[in-house]
Amino acid sequence: MDRPPRQLKLSPATRAAQALRHIDETTGSIVPVIDLSTTYARDDQGDPRQSYIYARSGGPTVKMAEAVLADLDGGAASMVFASGMAAVVTMLETLNTGDHVVAPSVMYHGVINWLLRLKDKRGIEVTLFDQADETALQKAIRPNTVLVWIETPINPNWDIIDIAAAAKAAHAVGAKLVVDCTVSPPCTTNTLELGADFVFYSATKYLGGHSDITAGVLTCAVADDLWIELVEIRTLTGNVIAAFEAWLLIRGIRTLYIRYDKASSSAMKIAQHLETHPKIAKVMYPGLPSHPGHAVAKKQMTGGFSGMLSILTHTRETAHDIARFVQVFINATSLGGVESLIEHRIKVEGPNSIVPDTLIRLSIGIEDVNDLIADLDQALERAK
Ligand SMILES: Cc1ncc(COP(=O)(O)O)c(C=O)c1O
Fold first, then answer.
1. For the sheet containing 280-284, what is the strand order?
2. What mean pLDDT do residues 237-255 have?
3. Fewer Cβ within 10 Å of end Cβ, the chain: N or C?
4. What local confidence, expressed as pLDDT, does residue 352 receive?
5. CATH number of this structure's domain 12-254, picked from the four choices 3.30.70.2740, 3.40.367.20, 3.40.640.10, 1.20.1640.10
6. Which pLDDT belongs to residue 244?
């Protein structure tokens, strides 16, 4: 007699590649279908046949993307939004007048701008701490702190924040910790396991991975009352991702592990190559032992240090020249796609930016790393 098969425990990379072993029950299709319906027929009793009612609360394709993400994050539930900022605004919409929020002084500018808007318009108290000072987060927390929002690694210096330490500090006063892990997705960081209450991603970046969707994700450790409020806000505001974008997101996630691995190993080679170049003053990459956050990054980014690095040149002119002389890199903003991007950051952030005007930001894709190194070499050679 055949023995029953032993249940294999599949690794997250396998579960991602197979979109949770998706096989359609009726057709045998191994690719999920795109369900474009905006409404769902009810049964004879007038009850929903399954859990689907109306597309604003998410149809089957959206729910499938959410199931994949909740699984990879090891969370109780995930929600996918029309953009990263839609997810951010939804989370911050739960704040009440007098609530105190702690966040780093340098992080994705859209989040800071929205926090400052709430400070002016709704009387939310906001403390921005110096993310380069290990003790600053702890000192910024007050008895009325309800939310600690961090990002790691932080654009554009790739400063690292210790997620476990931040969780401990937030929980000491009963605050929730949200971590923007856009640059350290689940293939490298188990954010909820490290103690965060929520993990957030701009899925426009590594999760989508092909520069062809805007999307945002929130995953919760526990689906408590706050989660129910977040679901309600997304449903009422219609911040949900559309079905086709949700499908592209599922497809992107299937290759996340190999894309991130390739981008990380190429970024490391490029960082090491550039570190000794005479026209470069500094290379900022958490994978380099010279980076101040390297030890913590090593601890919490176990699947690679990302494809994101920045370089400082000696003059603004050199930085400007490198960005315009490249032939393989594309001079454009954003990150986490299969194609490598370069940007002279000051041109993107504008004259009020605190980022040095000698900073070049690179998002390494999955091209042949030798082509990328040769491209930077020729641009550096031509640059003043
Ligand atoms: C770290 C980080 N968080 C949030 C966002 C906002 O996401 P989205 O552009 O998808 O709205 C971005 C976008 O660049 C980002 O880089």
1. 280-284, 308-313, 359-363, 341-344, 330-331
2. 98
3. N
4. 76
5. 3.40.640.10
6. 98
- Mean residue pLDDT of the chain comes to 96
Nearest ligand 1 atom to alpha carbon 107: 1
DSSP 154: B
Give tens-digit pLDDT for 172-202.
999 999 999 999 999 999 999 999 999 999 9
Could you state, in order of their start, the residue ranges of all structural domains in the chain?
12-254, 257-382
- 310 CB-side CA count, 13 A: 21
**Confidence (pLDDT) at 1:** 64
**What is the β-pairing status of strands 359-363 and 341-344?**
antiparallel
Q: What is the pLDDT at residue 69?
A: 98
| Res 215: pLDDT | 98
C-beta of residue 206 within 8 angstroms of C-beta of residue 247? no
Q: CA torsion angle for 102, 107, 113, 118 (degrees, to 10)?
A: -20
Please list every protein residue whose CB sits less than 6 Å from any atom of ligand 1.
Answer: 83-85, 108, 110, 151, 155, 180, 182, 202, 204, 214, 216
**Whose CA is closest to atom 8 on ligand 1?**
84
Which CATH code of 3.90.1150.10, 3.40.50.1360, 3.30.200.20, 3.30.56.10 fits the domain covering 257-382?
3.90.1150.10
